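Design a sequence for this backbone.
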């Protein structure tokens, strides 16, 4: 069956403050490691009430220290927010401490609103326009050392000097990152859980246009989805109501902590709200393991995904763990997945 991985946003709920959400992430990572998930990726967000993770590299180190087999990485580090040398040194440090178990997923968006993005970068040398490609090139050069002659950075060594960057992946929700990842020969992860762009088109474009590089000889395409799984359909629908209301509010520009199923059940939905929710459900896999498989596998086959990465915004931490447990038991049949990059 398809290898499974986990994308964690450390969801803040009406009953779980941010600090507790971070501790839940460490507990969930241990759980995923025991279940045989391949990767545990952490997303960077800022000034978003429902997401506690603002410093993914710190949490990656904490998780890698308490797990044994699972690869731990960023899904991703938002490169516009950071000096490339800082990213290079932090992830070389992680790779030195946990060799062969770290991934570096890179995002092009800031992971926040415009004002917060300015606050994150205001002490950097700001450039007008989108400088993602320039930052990505610089990150690569800190690894390869291929600076032009007489470049002032040529004498700067990214530390620890005897460690290398972990495998790199570009994250995307359109064809832009797919084609860029293919052209420079990196891994690619597509964010089906919030993308409006067609996953099949993006992922097949990546595979068709992939050019082998010093990073990868063969393409590796990850399909990231949102899923809610439970022992019964009724329970899965109850749990998914938290995501339904959360997405509805975000579609109106309202950002709150993740609501409980009880709050979702009591919400005074208008008919227009229900239309929006039905549309958002096209990107959400809800049900028992058999029901999720019936919807998911055709998409996996169409996208030719090498791996499925699951995020689950479930209010109750125990129910979230149970969801991942049910999916793992169904798709992996209890077999531990190898931790190759």
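Sequence:
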């Amino acid at each position: 069956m398809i290898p499974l991985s986990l994308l964690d946003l450390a969801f803040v709920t009406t009953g779980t403050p941010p600090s507790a959400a971070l501790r839940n992430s460490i507990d969930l990572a241990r759980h995923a490691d025991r279940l045989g998930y391949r990767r545990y990726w952490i997303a960077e967000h800022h000034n978003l009430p429902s997401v506690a993770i603002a410093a993914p590299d710190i949490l990656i180190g904490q998780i890698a220290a308490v797990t044994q087999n699972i690869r731990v990485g960023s899904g991703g580090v938002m490169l516009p927010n950071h000096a490339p040398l800082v990213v290079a040194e932090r992830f070389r440090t992680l790779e030195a401490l946990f060799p062969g178990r770290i991934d570096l997923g890179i995002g092009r968006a800031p992971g926040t609103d415009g004002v917060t993005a300015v606050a994150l970068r205001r002490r950097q040398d700001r450039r007008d326009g989108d400088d993602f490609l320039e930052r990505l090139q610089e990150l690569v050069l800190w690894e390869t050392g291929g600076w032009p002659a007489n470049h002032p950075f040529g004498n700067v060594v990214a530390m620890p000097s005897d460690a290398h960057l972990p495998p790199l992946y570009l994250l995307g929700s359109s064809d832009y990152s797919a084609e860029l990842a293919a052209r420079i020969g990196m891994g690619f992860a597509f964010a089906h859980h919030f993308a409006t762009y067609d996953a099949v088109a993006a992922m097949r474009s990546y595979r068709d246009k992939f050019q082998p590089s010093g990073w990868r000889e063969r393409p590796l395409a990850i399909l990231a989805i949102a899923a809610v799984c439970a022992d019964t359909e009724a329970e899965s629908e109850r749990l998914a109501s938290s995501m339904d209301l959360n997405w509805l509010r975000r579609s109106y520009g309202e950002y709150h902590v993740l609501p409980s199923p009880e709050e979702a059940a009591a919400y005074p939905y208008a008919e227009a709200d229900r239309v929006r929710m039905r549309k958002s459900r096209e990107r959400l896999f809800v049900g028992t393991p058999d029901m999720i498989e019936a919807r998911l596998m055709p998409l996996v086959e169409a996208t030719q995904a090498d791996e499925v990465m699951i995020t689950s915004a479930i209010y109750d931490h125990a129910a979230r763990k149970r969801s991942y447990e049910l999916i793992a038991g169904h798709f992996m049949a209890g077999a531990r997945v190898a931790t190759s990059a």
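Confidence is low (pLDDT under 50) at residues 334-340.
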